[in-house]
Every structure is written in C-alpha cells, then in structure tokens.
Amino acid sequence: MSATPYTPSAELARLHIRSALALVLTQSPRQGKAALESLRTVVLSPYFPGDVADAVERLRSSELGSARPALLNGFIDDLIFGWPDPSHPYYQKPPALVAVEAAVELNRAGTLPRVQANMNKLLLGADKLGVRLGVAIALRVPDAGEAASEPARVVFRAWLKDTDSPFRGNGICRAVTLSWASASALEAAATLTIKELAMVSRTDIPAFVVQRAVDLFSSASSWDEANSIADKAAIPFAPKMDANQVGQIIASAASGQSDLLSSGGFKRFLRAIAHENPLGTPGINAMLESQGLEHHLLPTDQTPET
What does the pLDDT look like over 173-201, one tens digit per residue? Predict the structure, then answer.
C-alpha cells in the first residue's frame, strides 16, 4: 500500500464537499421545529402512557432522550403554553400535563428551571385557563410549586377561594402538600360545596375533606338537602370516617340540629357505615342506642343496598 497522502484535485475535492453537504441537508433535523413536531406526535398518540413513570420511558426513546437545551426549552414551552391555547394541538389535552411531569423526571436539571419560569408567567397572567394550568403545574411538579415567586403565590392562594373552578376540590387536596400553601388550603377546604366534594378523587381522600362532608351532612336543613349530601359526599366518604365523625352525624340527627331523621339519605348512610366502615353494624348500633335512636337500629344480617 502506498504511503503517499491522498491529494485529490480541486475539482474532485469540490465534488466531495458538495456530496457531503447534499447528504447532510437531506437529513431531517434532530433539533428544532421538526423535532417538536415529532414529540407532539409522541405525546398525542393514543398510546402515550398516562402513568408518569411509563411516560418517562417513552420520552427517553424519543428526541428528548438526547435533546440539547434548546429543544428541552422548546418542548416545555410547547406543552405549557399550548395547553391553554384553543388553536394549539395540545389544547386541554391531559397527556400534555403528563408529559411535563415526565420531562422533569427525565431531565430535572435541564427542564425544571423552565417549568418554574413558565409556571410563574401563567399564574401572573390574565388568562383564567392559564392560571388554572399554573396551579396544576405547581401541584403536579412540587419542586416547581415550592419555588413559586411571592406574587405567584398570592394568585395561587386567591385561586383556592374561587368556587367557579371544577378542579378546586382536588386542587385543595394537593395544595396542603406545599409548605407555603398548606394553611390557605385548609382554610379553603371549609368552604367546599357539595358539588365540589362530589368531584374529589376517591382514591386518597384527606381527613379534612371528609370532615367537610361530615359538617355539611350534620347541618342539612331539609330531607332534600340531606339526600343530596348523602349521595354526593356522606355515603362515598363513609369508609373513611372515624368514630368521632360518625358520632357527630348521629348526635346531630338525634338532637334535631339537622333534618336527617327519616330522610332516605340518612338511612342509606347508616347502611354504608355498617358495611363499608370499620365500625360495622355493632358499632353503628351502639351509637344509635346511646343517642336514643333505637328505632333506627340495623339488623345484624343487614345486606348492602344495591
């Protein structure tokens, strides 16, 4: 083999350069608009996971797995500012919020500062849907929520009092986990309506939300109100009630402070406690007897109402 260096002619060198450029320019760019479009396809796929851990693995195998800072920032911006935009493909799409959480888990150092900055912008903006998204990000990405600016925190606390949001019940349940919002969340919980309680997730109901349902049921002023509260909150929360809370309801019924006695909702509530609460039939009957409500005692072979 000759050791002489390869020295092509100028014309041949230009041909090689042109061929190399043509090859590079015909490849789809890995960063930029095309990459964002590809990521949108991934997130909006009907098979994008709803579980954050699974979503992390899905994004790891996409362009995001080896993304440079510009693409990371672009992806976060696209998700966050696209969700409240009616003209955007991400408009109010739940997978977009899952993707925000997953992106932070996948590359916390590269994405969290951008998420925090965008969260503050949303909370300080004039768009109501944008503020709601800012609240959701603060709750779903606790590291971002804890770093909220003081003006953003003021807006967040005001949102906790807004009874016009269908997300408020679940938002209050999560807000107690933020150190600076916990006291405001507990205060707001005392204003939850029956409609809002009915929309609270049943998977992990905080004790203070159960107490709100107990307080409302204990102060029902009519049979119609008692039936409504029973069906929407008291019965669904019955498995989570402790002995003191059940006792509060029964004492209110016996004293006449509420109009529970003889309402269908109260009877259904007693059966729910008997079959879904650790007190069981013996426990609920003992409470009824102690309050002079023997005529409401449940038979020991009582079966749940279907």
Answer: 999 999 999 999 999 999 999 999 999 98
Q: Give residue 265's identity as a one-letter amino acid code.
A: G
d(CA 296, CA 123): 51
Q: Whole-angstrom Cα distance, residue 137 to residue 145?
A: 7
CA angle 124, 148, 156 (to 5 degrees): 55
Helices 128-140, 108-123: inter-axial angle, 10-degree rounding: 140
- Give Cα separations from 156 to 122, 150, 264 (angstroms): 11, 10, 40
Alpha carbon distance 158, 264 (integer Å): 38
Task: Report the mean per-residue pLDDT for the chain.
Answer: 91
Q: What is the pTM of this model?
A: 0.80
Q: Is 229 left (phi over 0), alpha (psi -120 to 50) or beta?
A: alpha
| 258 and 285 Cβ atoms separated by less than 8 Å | no
